[in-house]
Each structure stands twice: as C-alpha cells, then as structure tokens.
Please model this.
Amino acid sequence: MKILGIETSCDETAAAVVEDGVRILSNQIASQVEIHARYGGIVPEVASRQHILAIIPTIEQAMAKAETTWSDLAGIAVTNGPGLVGSLLVGANAAKAISLAHRLPITGVNHLEGHIYASWLGNHSIHFPLVCLIVSGGHSDLVLMRGHGDYIVLGRTRDDASGEAFDKAARILGLGYPGGPAIEQAARNGTASIQLPRAWLKGTSDFSFSGVKTALLRLVEAGKVSSSADAAASFQEAVIDVLVTKAVAAAQERRVKQILLVGGVASNESLRKRLTENSSIPVLVPEPVLCTDNAAMIAACGYYHFQAGRVDGLDLDVVASLKLA
Ligand code: KG4
Ligand code: ZN
Model:
C-alpha cells in the first residue's frame, strides 16, 4: 500500500512515497533555509510563496524517484496543522487537487503525530505502551501512546519550545540561523563550564526553557561570556539535562516498554546519546534526516489513518494550533 505524503507546515516543502507505513521509496525536501537565514528567522509570507513555487516540482520528483504512478497510490496524507496557515494551505490544496483529479482518498495528519511516526520508518519493532518526547521548533511535549492514534499528553512546554530556545540562544551568541545545528557545532569546541539554571517544574512533566535563555542573555549583556563555544556547550547541556531527566522519569512512572525521541531537536547528537545512555528502558531515535521536517513521516502516519478508516473529504481544513489527541 503506497501513500503519497505532503508536508508544508513550516519552511520545508516536502513530498514522499512510503510503502506500508515503513518503506521509504522517495523522500524529497525543498529547503527554504537559505532564504530565511537572511532575516534570521522564518518570514511566514515568504514561506507561503516559496511553497507555491516548490510544491508541484517536489511532488513530481517524489513520484518519479519512487517510480510510482497515480494509479499505484492508495491515498494521500497531508499535514493539516499545527503550523503556519499560509504554508499549510499550499500542501492541503495540492493534496485536494490530486485527490480530485485522480480519485484518491485523502487523510489529514497532525504534524506532531507525523514526527512520532518517523519512528516506524525502516520497520523497527515498536511496543506499546510507550512514551514519546517530541522536541521541535514549536513543541516540547511528553506523550503517552497506548496504541496507534491513542495519545495522552503528559506534559508540554509552558513557554519556549526546546528548538525555539536553541534558535534564540544561537541568536544571542551570534551563531546564526538555524540555531540548533549552529549551537551543536559550536558546542563541539567548548566545555559546559558556565552555570545555567534548569527549570525542573517538579511533580509535572512540563518544561520551561525561557529562563535558561534569559540567563544566557544576561551573562552576554554583562560581558561575562568570553567563549561562545563554552556558552553553546553550557546551554546545550542545560536543555538536554532537563529533557533527558524528565523523559526518563515519565517513562519509568508510566512503566512503558519504550521511549521514542522525535522532532528536529532529536537530530542533536548529544541529546540522542545522552537519552540512550541514561535510560534503562529501550530508546528509539529516527535517523537525523527523519527527525527534522519531512513528508515520509506524514505518509507513514497516513498509512495507519487509512488502516483505521480515517479518511477526510475535500473540505479538510488547516488548523494553525491543531492539537494532538
Ligand atoms: O521538527 P522541526 O524540523 O520543525 C518543527 O516542527 O519545528 O524542528 C526544527 C527545530 C529548530 O528549532 C531547530 O533549531 C532544531 O529543530 N534543531 C536542532 C538541531 N537540528 C534542528 N536543535 C538542536 N540540535 C540540532 N542538531
Ligand atoms: Zn516539525
């Protein structure tokens, strides 16, 4: 069963063909990173326009690379939120047009649910119940998953998402955009020697990353940071410390069989390593290219939607703040 996945929630125009929810036949990503880097962050209006330019060629490339024809497809899965409305609309409308023209069923996929399903790509053995740590530019959520499509949000960030914190810290340190990879790169040449606060929010699975970012800003403003490498390493350490500690605690408390680490920040090598080393419960992390935004994860998730009979009509709407569960 081949599914075409389409993802345009933020600044990557992506299309992919995935078979049976696990085998990637193609995974095309047209990145807008260089365009937005000029502005130091994503400009929504620019993102929408770039998606319009890139969507058809990206879908055509995904189909060609997968050597798939429209009649080979069983359906289309498209991200319908959360994300930038103008960006989401481009993918959703492309999916609807193809659905109408080729009489293919369509299913809307929550972007966060898509991130979770990146774990299934490559046919790994996954056992429920599990705890999933979703760390991206817009979210830092701890989710209990008891089966396909069955989510209980245990905790979330109360202010900045972890990816957002990485991006802001990189800006404070003048390391450029996108911040996550920039911080990780700089941290390789530094040591975590600067004391930065951790918000534990004891008794909850919630996170808060605005305090550590502000503490870093105050140190820089006071001229107390002489090495941006040490500052990057210290910041990365503070964020990872909290993420890993709270994810392991939630997994132990819920007595789950597995921990999934997903989302753009999960491509961070130190985070991957630390969670794997610090957890007695098995940890599964998708390869880095499947952690950052892509359409293979959307197609993988769509497969389970279709299996469960979750089909949407041409009235499928995009929702900027779409919730999981
Ligand atoms: O999942 P994603 O690609 O898009 C969203 O759904 O937001 O995540 C993007 C976020 C950005 O904030 C980016 O700085 C962060 O993931 N990120 C990283 C790394 N690569 C991307 N953060 C830390 N270390 C990385 N290597
Ligand atoms: Zn994402």
Summary: Residues 111, 115, 136, 263-264, 293 surround zinc ion (ligand 2) (CB under 6 Å). Residues 228-253 form the longest helix (26 residues).
